[in-house]
Amino acid sequence: MDQVELLSDRITAVQLDRKRNRELQRRERIFNDKVRTIGLDKDALDHQVKERREKDQREANELKVYADDLLCSDRVSCVLEQRQKKDERLLNEAIVQFRQQFQQTTSRREFDLNDPELLKKQEGVRILPGLTGEDLAQKDRLRKQQEQLRAWSLQQQEELERAKQQLQEKVHQYDQSRLSLDNRALELQKMEEQCKRATAIATKNFNLALAAEITHRRLQEHHEEEENNQTDILNQLNGDLLMENPEQNVSVLGLSRLRRDCYKGMSPKELQQYTQYQLQQAEDRKSAVMKQREKELQEHHEHMASARAALLLERQQARFNKGLRRALDNTNAQLAQAHDAQKKQLQDLSTNIPDERYFSQFNTSSR
User: Fold this and answer.
1) Is the dihedral of CA 350, 356, 358, 359 positive or negative?
2) Where are the beta strands (DSSP E) in the chain?
3) What is the DSSP code (8-state) at residue 117?
4) Is 159 helix (H, G, I), strand (E, B) or coil?
5) Are 135 and 115 in contact (CB under 8 A)?
């Protein structure tokens, strides 16, 4: 017949293995002198060391990424700086080239005054020996320069006059626009004041009408309240409450019930019954007090008797305990003498001294 492994047997085997593993781990912790005496948790320390290493590695990776970003930024800045320098150099070259092509000294307006080749360009003029540098066209040049200056001054005056006229026209246009805006603002202000005045009048009329309506309603309510009060007063004066009608005490549920809202006190018969009931209660209370006092006195006597008996029993028990203690001391003294004699005899007879093998059989389990 085949053996069938039950679920309970499997669970029991797993539990036994788990218990055996826990016992082995506990034995390792207990018989480890370093852990037992110092109290170190090696698993926790290893976990802390692992976390510290992971933290250092993470910081090193972050520092490396930061350094790579710095190097990349430096490269980009170097490339941008070189590109900017190149652009500036190309711009300067273009400016120099433009000046050489379109801004030459010969194209200046005052070049004829500083032209070193002016005398050479003049035709039919000969320089006598010994008169180098003589300016024969000085008068004509001065006259032309004065005419040119006069023309420039006239042109500047015309431009100034033209600018003044334009400025005056602009100022005039600005003044016109300001006037039109001011007029429009005045019109809008007047319209706003008229609208506010009409709104205020309408609000005043509405408030007056509302106040009149509220006053009329309050007067009407006051009149109705006075009428209701007078009617209520008459009803109260003529009612059963103030007239003290004895029939109003009876409830609709029966003659044995009374109406608490209309109750006017007890009748003479009820007062006599109530007085007799109070006297009967006083007599019952006095008899109950006397019985209670007698019961307490009897309990006191019983308590004193039981206390006296307990004191006698306690003294008897003390004497009995004292005798037992004396007998026990004698017995202990005899046993001590016998033990000392037996110990002395064993020391004289035994010659075997326990060695390491004797002690090695102990402390082999963690329990």
Assistant:
1) positive
2) 250-251, 254-258
3) T
4) helix
5) no
Taking only the tens place, the pLDDT of each residue in 102-136 is 777 777 777 777 777 777 766 554 545 445 555 66
Of the candidates 14, 44, 17, the residue with the CA atom closest to the CA atom of residue 29? 44
User: DSSP label at 127?
Assistant: P
Phi, psi of 244 (to 5 degrees): 55, 55
Q: Which residues contact 45 (CB under 8 A, 6 or more apart)?
A: none
Q: What count of other Cβ atoms lies within 10 Å of the Cβ of residue 248?
A: 17
The model scores a pTM over 0.70: no
Q: How far apart are CA 256 and CA 196, in angstroms?
A: 78
Reported as a single tens digit per residue, the pLDDT across 176-214 is 888 888 888 888 888 988 888 998 899 989 989 999 999
pLDDT in tens, 253-276: 655 666 666 666 677 777 888 888
Q: Which helix (H) or strand (E) holds 87?
A: helix 42-102
36 and 30 Cβ atoms separated by less than 8 Å: yes
Distant-in-sequence, close-in-space partners of 236: CB < 8 Å, separation ≥ 6 = 242
Cα 235 from Cα 242, distance rounded (Å): 10
- 258 - beta bridge partners? 250
DSSP letter, residue 244: T
Alpha-carbon span 248 to 260, nearest angstrom: 10
Q: Are 250 and 259 in contact (CB under 8 A)?
A: yes
Alpha-carbon distance of 121 to 115, in angstroms, equals: 10
Q: Collapsing DSSP states into helix, strand and coil, what is residue 182? A: helix
